[in-house]
Amino acid sequence: MTTSDTHSAIDAVWRIESGKLIAGLTRMTGDVGLAEDLAQDALVAALERWPETGVPDNPGAWLMTTAKRRAIDVFRRGKLVDRKHQELGPELLARQENPEGGLAAAIDDHVGDDLLGLIFTTCHPVLSTEARVALTLRLLGGLTTDEIARAFLVPEPTIAQRIVRAKRTLREARVPFEVPRGVELTARLSSVLEVLYLIFNEGYSATAGDDWVRPGLCEDALRLGRIVAELAPQDPEVQGLVALMEIQASRLKARVGPAGEPILLLDQDRARWDQLLIRRGLTALDRAEQLAGALGPYALQAAIAACHARARTGEDTDWTRITALYDALAQLTPSPIVELNRAVAYAMAFGPAAGLEIVDALTSEPALASYHLLPSVRGDFLAKLGRFGEARAEFERAASLTRNAPERTLLLERAAACRRGAAPNHPTES
Hints:
By secondary structure, the protein is an all-alpha fold. It starts with a helix and ends in an 11-residue tail after the last helix. The longest helix has 27 residues, at 3-29. The radius of gyration is 25 Å and the shape is elongated. The protein contains 21 helices and 2 strands. The model is unreliable at 88-111 (pLDDT under 50).
């Protein structure tokens, strides 16, 4: 194996193992910042040794052992050793056991609980949403600061500052490394799901930049969602979110053309949809439906996605059921974005005039004042009604508002079609 191959293998191992490694170290040290430093030390050791010795048979165990040794060294030298003596309790001293042995063993237990504890730590409400996203991708997604910055088109120093401040905030707030229970568990779990949802959505439909989709972000969110689903298998909304991400991720390859141009849902080659991901998503949705008396927001969105996944062609889509699901979602979590999506469904089920009636009621909504999809959707409806001049103006306005280059090109093409008196075939995704 060449040095380049070894470095690629190390990168892959780090993406897989870093979350478990940092989780175990955080439980032991009580400090997520120190835990990441210890994990990074183990990574540096791997980069130094593995090109010469080769990748070990169990690379995760090698990293954990190396990090444990480094942790014990830190405790032996640092002020934390006194606190750890106290935490391990008089029974260890009575048996004349070395506390360092307890520290080493502590990392090996409850890996699943550790991962769940780390997720609840990185997504703690004491942090801003932006900080939660950055810290989760850093510690659980294994992404570098540069990768996170490029994914969200934010300067690298900004992301670095968010991560540093987030770790400091957690330390100063003395946020415990634990899985909350009871009512607090439900409240905190919603924060975890929100972060994963935001990460996935940014990958599925990038808000800015030169790429229509960023599959890497979708993969990271889905991987973390699967972890949460394994650790909280009885929560219907966890299952619902995983179902939604699995089904949406099945379309990623069909969402872009050869030159990276957007391909909207009803124009996609459904033969390119990943059937394995669809089956996984439908299975998770079934599980959510069995667990829940009534579907929550994520499960409802998954049910909508399932309607598309089950349709062999666009014409087979059960738009009437989708409108009913959006009605339920609007009742459960009313928002302008949900209403905009509901308008698209109504237009497909009952005609563009029905969708336009809903959209027109949103034009004075402050939250949508600079949201490009509002004029984009309205332009679709107007074009289908033959009001091409108004439609062209809406598409041009939408193009001026979006920060995503491929989407801007698509919107300008639609405006040009309206200038020629041609209606777009299908509505903009929303």
